[in-house]
Amino acid sequence: MSDVLVPWDDVLAAYDPALGLEVHVELNTNTKMFCGCPAVYGGEPNTQVCPTCLGLPGAMPVVNGKAIESAIRIGLALNCEIAEWCRFARKNYFYPDMPKNFQTSQYDEPICFEGWMDVEVDGENFRVEIERAHMEEDTGKSLHVGGATGRIHGADYSLVDYNRAGIPLIEIVTKPIMGAGEKAPAVARAYVSQLRDLILALGVSEARMDQGNLRADVNLSLAPKGSGGLGTRTETKNVNSFRSVERAVRYEMQRHAAVLNAGEAIFQETRHWHEDTGVTTSGRAKSDADDYRYFPEPDLVPVAPSREWVDELRGTLPENPVERRARLQADWGYTDLEMRDVVASGVLVPIEETVAAGASPQAARKWWSSELARRANDAGVDVVDLGVSPAQVAAVQALVDAKTINDKLARQVFDGLLAGEGTPEEIVAARGLAVVSDDGALGAAVDVAIAANPDVADKIRDGKVAAAGALIGAVMKEMKGQADAGRVRELILEKLS
């Protein structure tokens, strides 16, 4: 049964929200965090495992050095302090997808701490303070078979795949985000989106939310308006899209307000997000740190990155994504709206590479943000996985600029590219797509159009030049879109002047 929700304006009038976001980033190392098993997505269940990641007696873990490097680079990019000495701990709890019955993580001694990231929402800046970014291993994956929800409740039985167990994770935990008010849902979305951009720029993860490379847990509480305090929080687990992060915050704010307005107490718990219905449902009681019985991992030595290494890694950081977007927007002359659309469509990088290959910024945006984005949406894939490269897009635009083809014919060239028919030039030749600019052929087609549309021709003779568009359209239809429209217009006006 759905929860009763308080209207949004009533929530804002009575309560102040506090946000906390925990984002898990699955690193793209070749091997797992503490063993040599491949850290790749997919694979037959339980084939990418060994005694160490299965927690078998006598198996000893060894820390993945590349994972430590990635953790430090993430911390530096988030303006964090990097610990001179830290260690792993055992987080003890039972769940079927965790083969050791504990998770090797970090608790009070994280590798990165006290950082921040600024996000902008509707022209207002919000500083999100980072409490810590710590290293840990992922759990396995449960598959609940039977039932209607895919969750354990109502399932006939469950299967466990341990391929993911031991994959390196970085968990980035914010301090409470206060003062966002009505913009709290948008701030949460902006933070996770900007964090993903940063992770991609660092090259430390694929950050694909659909594959679980990046997962957000949304903590939320409400306090009476103006109290400056914190209420009892709930944690909505594993939210896997920017839109859902925003919706989950808004829903929980309205649900919390309904519980509080009824004079009841918020139950500290984890909750499940339901993408299809846009609601959360109760999961389990939320444990406190004491319940996990943390203690130092006895089988791993402490991690003590030298200051020289940290400074060396600082020098490898890429340009900040926010600053990079501002620079590219200025270079390309895009409006704020155009740039927002480019970023939202995920085509910033291909546009940049298309411009570098010789196309104008406006032409590159035209193809990637509209034609190719539409095709990717129809195919159900990311636009960068469509199968058309930035160099090919630039080559198509070069043919348009040379008036070899027009935009309509260019769409057929993209058909050929997706079908693997060769280069844009080869496709134009093989399909006979080149624009016809020969006056003889064009003149004959113009004569046919004039004869078929005498009323339009009379308007043009009377000085209504705008009417020429109808005749141009007729000629283009006759010549299957391959006529040089500019030359057709000139011929029409010459014949009817």
Description of the molecule:
- The chain folds into three domains: 8-313, no CATH class; 321-431, no CATH class; 439-496, Arc Repressor Mutant, subunit A.
- The mean pLDDT is 90.
- A hairpin with a 2-residue loop joins strand 5 and strand 6.
- A nine-stranded mixed beta sheet has the order 2-5-6-9-1-10-11-12-13. It has a three-stranded antiparallel beta sheet with strand order 4-3-14, with no helix packed on it.
- The chain is α+β, with helices and mostly antiparallel strands and 497 residues long.
- The chain is 39% helix and 19% strand.
- It is elongated, with a radius of gyration of 29 Å.
- The longest helix has 20 residues, at 242-261.
Can I get a quick summary?
It is built from 16 helices and 14 strands.
- How much helicity do the residues have? 25-40%
What is the rounded distance between the termini?
74 Å
Low-confidence stretches: none
Number of strands: 14
Total of domains: 3
Mean pLDDT, to the nearest integer, reads: 90
Tally of contiguous helical segments: 16
Pfam families: GatB_N, GatB_Yqey
Catalytic activity: L-aspartyl-tRNA(Asn) + L-glutamine + ATP + H2O = L-asparaginyl-tRNA(Asn) + L-glutamate + ADP + phosphate + 2 H(+); L-glutamyl-tRNA(Gln) + L-glutamine + ATP + H2O = L-glutaminyl-tRNA(Gln) + L-glutamate + ADP + phosphate + H(+)
Keywords: ATP-binding, Ligase, Nucleotide-binding, Protein biosynthesis, Transferase
GO molecular function: asparaginyl-tRNA synthase (glutamine-hydrolyzing) activity; ATP binding; glutaminyl-tRNA synthase (glutamine-hydrolyzing) activity; transferase activity
